[in-house]
Specification:
It is a single chain. By secondary structure, the chain is of the alpha+beta class. The protein has a single domain, classed as Roll (Pnp Oxidase, Chain A). The protein has 3 helices and 12 strands. The protein has a 7-stranded antiparallel beta sheet, with helices on both faces. Strand 4 and strand 5 form a beta hairpin. The N and C termini lie far apart (about 40 Å).
Protein backbone atom coordinates (compact mmCIF):
# COMPACT_ATOMS: atom_id res chain seq x y z
CA UNK A 1 0.00 0.00 0.00
CA UNK A 2 1.28 3.48 -0.88
CA UNK A 3 2.25 5.73 1.98
CA UNK A 4 -0.10 8.54 3.02
CA UNK A 5 2.35 11.27 1.96
CA UNK A 6 2.51 9.91 -1.59
CA UNK A 7 -1.28 9.55 -1.73
CA UNK A 8 -1.72 13.16 -0.57
CA UNK A 9 0.84 14.49 -3.09
CA UNK A 10 -0.73 12.39 -5.86
CA UNK A 11 -4.24 13.71 -5.05
CA UNK A 12 -2.97 17.32 -5.00
CA UNK A 13 -1.17 16.91 -8.33
CA UNK A 14 -4.14 15.20 -10.03
CA UNK A 15 -6.50 18.02 -9.04
CA UNK A 16 -4.51 20.21 -11.43
CA UNK A 17 -5.76 18.21 -14.40
CA UNK A 18 -8.95 19.33 -16.12
CA UNK A 19 -11.56 16.83 -17.23
CA UNK A 20 -15.01 16.85 -18.70
CA UNK A 21 -17.83 15.93 -16.35
CA UNK A 22 -19.78 12.77 -17.16
CA UNK A 23 -22.82 11.19 -15.54
CA UNK A 24 -23.27 7.47 -16.13
CA UNK A 25 -26.90 6.30 -16.03
CA UNK A 26 -28.53 2.91 -16.36
CA UNK A 27 -32.01 1.42 -16.33
CA UNK A 28 -33.23 -2.14 -16.69
CA UNK A 29 -34.26 -5.22 -14.72
CA UNK A 30 -31.86 -4.34 -11.88
CA UNK A 31 -33.28 -0.83 -11.49
CA UNK A 32 -32.38 2.73 -12.34
CA UNK A 33 -29.17 4.31 -11.09
CA UNK A 34 -26.54 6.86 -11.95
CA UNK A 35 -23.36 8.52 -10.76
CA UNK A 36 -20.98 11.32 -11.63
CA UNK A 37 -17.55 10.15 -12.79
CA UNK A 38 -14.41 12.14 -13.40
CA UNK A 39 -12.66 9.54 -15.54
CA UNK A 40 -14.28 8.95 -18.92
CA UNK A 41 -12.64 8.74 -22.34
CA UNK A 42 -12.75 7.13 -25.75
CA UNK A 43 -11.03 3.78 -25.96
CA UNK A 44 -11.28 2.52 -29.54
CA UNK A 45 -12.80 3.52 -32.87
CA UNK A 46 -13.18 -0.11 -34.01
CA UNK A 47 -15.35 -1.07 -32.33
CA UNK A 48 -16.49 2.33 -31.07
CA UNK A 49 -15.94 2.09 -27.34
CA UNK A 50 -15.45 4.17 -24.22
CA UNK A 51 -13.97 3.66 -20.78
CA UNK A 52 -15.11 4.94 -17.40
CA UNK A 53 -13.76 4.39 -13.90
CA UNK A 54 -16.21 3.75 -11.06
CA UNK A 55 -15.28 3.43 -7.39
CA UNK A 56 -15.80 -0.12 -6.18
CA UNK A 57 -18.01 1.13 -3.30
CA UNK A 58 -20.40 3.05 -5.58
CA UNK A 59 -24.01 2.08 -4.87
CA UNK A 60 -24.74 2.47 -8.60
CA UNK A 61 -22.07 -0.01 -9.75
CA UNK A 62 -23.99 -3.28 -9.09
CA UNK A 63 -27.06 -1.87 -10.86
CA UNK A 64 -25.02 -0.72 -13.86
CA UNK A 65 -23.25 -4.08 -14.16
CA UNK A 66 -26.46 -6.03 -13.58
CA UNK A 67 -28.30 -4.13 -16.31
CA UNK A 68 -25.33 -4.47 -18.66
CA UNK A 69 -26.06 -1.09 -20.28
CA UNK A 70 -25.34 2.55 -19.56
CA UNK A 71 -25.48 6.00 -21.06
CA UNK A 72 -22.45 8.22 -20.65
CA UNK A 73 -23.85 11.75 -20.54
CA UNK A 74 -21.22 14.45 -21.12
CA UNK A 75 -22.45 17.51 -19.30
CA UNK A 76 -22.82 20.92 -20.90
CA UNK A 77 -21.61 24.00 -19.04
CA UNK A 78 -25.07 24.82 -17.64
CA UNK A 79 -25.61 21.32 -16.12
CA UNK A 80 -23.60 21.67 -12.91
CA UNK A 81 -26.68 20.84 -10.80
CA UNK A 82 -26.94 17.45 -12.54
CA UNK A 83 -23.28 16.71 -11.73
CA UNK A 84 -23.83 17.67 -8.10
CA UNK A 85 -27.04 15.65 -7.83
CA UNK A 86 -25.43 12.46 -9.17
CA UNK A 87 -22.40 13.01 -6.94
CA UNK A 88 -24.77 12.99 -3.95
CA UNK A 89 -24.06 16.63 -3.08
CA UNK A 90 -27.70 17.81 -3.08
CA UNK A 91 -29.42 16.27 -0.03
CA UNK A 92 -32.99 16.74 -1.28
CA UNK A 93 -32.13 14.84 -4.50
CA UNK A 94 -30.29 11.86 -2.96
CA UNK A 95 -33.39 9.63 -3.18
CA UNK A 96 -34.22 10.68 -6.75
CA UNK A 97 -31.19 12.07 -8.55
CA UNK A 98 -33.04 11.85 -11.86
CA UNK A 99 -35.35 14.67 -10.65
CA UNK A 100 -32.45 17.06 -11.36
CA UNK A 101 -33.12 17.10 -15.14
CA UNK A 102 -35.15 15.74 -18.06
CA UNK A 103 -34.33 12.32 -19.51
CA UNK A 104 -35.08 10.23 -22.60
CA UNK A 105 -34.54 6.50 -23.05
CA UNK A 106 -31.82 5.48 -25.49
CA UNK A 107 -31.99 2.29 -27.61
CA UNK A 108 -30.59 0.19 -24.73
CA UNK A 109 -33.09 1.71 -22.29
CA UNK A 110 -30.39 3.74 -20.54
CA UNK A 111 -31.52 7.27 -19.57
CA UNK A 112 -30.07 10.04 -21.74
CA UNK A 113 -29.80 13.53 -20.29
CA UNK A 114 -31.61 15.99 -22.54
CA UNK A 115 -29.44 18.82 -23.85
CA UNK A 116 -26.21 17.14 -22.72
CA UNK A 117 -23.12 17.89 -24.74
CA UNK A 118 -23.21 14.26 -25.88
CA UNK A 119 -24.87 10.98 -24.91
CA UNK A 120 -23.15 7.67 -25.59
CA UNK A 121 -25.48 4.66 -25.44
CA UNK A 122 -23.39 1.66 -24.40
CA UNK A 123 -23.47 -2.03 -23.64
CA UNK A 124 -21.00 -3.17 -20.99
CA UNK A 125 -18.31 -5.06 -22.91
CA UNK A 126 -15.77 -5.77 -20.15
CA UNK A 127 -14.81 -4.74 -16.65
CA UNK A 128 -11.50 -4.79 -14.84
CA UNK A 129 -10.85 -4.23 -11.17
CA UNK A 130 -7.81 -2.16 -10.29
CA UNK A 131 -7.07 -0.60 -6.93
CA UNK A 132 -10.12 1.21 -5.60
CA UNK A 133 -11.98 1.26 -8.94
CA UNK A 134 -13.62 -0.78 -11.65
CA UNK A 135 -12.70 0.09 -15.21
CA UNK A 136 -15.91 -0.29 -17.21
CA UNK A 137 -15.57 -0.68 -20.99
CA UNK A 138 -18.67 0.21 -22.97
CA UNK A 139 -19.25 -0.69 -26.60
CA UNK A 140 -21.08 2.29 -28.11
CA UNK A 141 -24.33 1.47 -29.93
CA UNK A 142 -25.48 5.06 -30.52
CA UNK A 143 -24.38 8.66 -30.03
CA UNK A 144 -26.38 11.87 -29.76
CA UNK A 145 -24.65 15.23 -29.59
CA UNK A 146 -25.61 18.87 -29.23
CA UNK A 147 -23.92 22.18 -29.84
CA UNK A 148 -22.78 23.54 -26.51
CA UNK A 149 -19.69 24.03 -24.40
CA UNK A 150 -18.57 21.39 -21.85
CA UNK A 151 -18.70 21.54 -18.09
CA UNK A 152 -15.17 20.98 -16.81
CA UNK A 153 -13.85 19.97 -13.41
CA UNK A 154 -10.42 21.21 -12.32
CA UNK A 155 -8.76 22.18 -9.06
CA UNK A 156 -11.73 20.77 -7.11
CA UNK A 157 -14.32 23.00 -8.75
CA UNK A 158 -16.55 23.20 -11.81
CA UNK A 159 -15.35 25.48 -14.60
CA UNK A 160 -16.47 26.77 -17.97
CA UNK A 161 -14.34 26.56 -21.08
CA UNK A 162 -13.63 29.79 -22.90
CA UNK A 163 -12.20 29.95 -26.42
CA UNK A 164 -8.85 31.72 -26.68
Amino acid sequence: MADETLISRFRDAMRRTASGVTVLTTDGPHGRAGLTVSTFCSLSMEPPSVMACVHRDSRALPTLLGNGVFAANLLAQDQRRVAEAFAGLIPELRDDRFASARWLAMATGAPALQEALANFDCRVARTFEFGSHYIVIGEVVDVVESINMPLVYADRSFCRVMAV
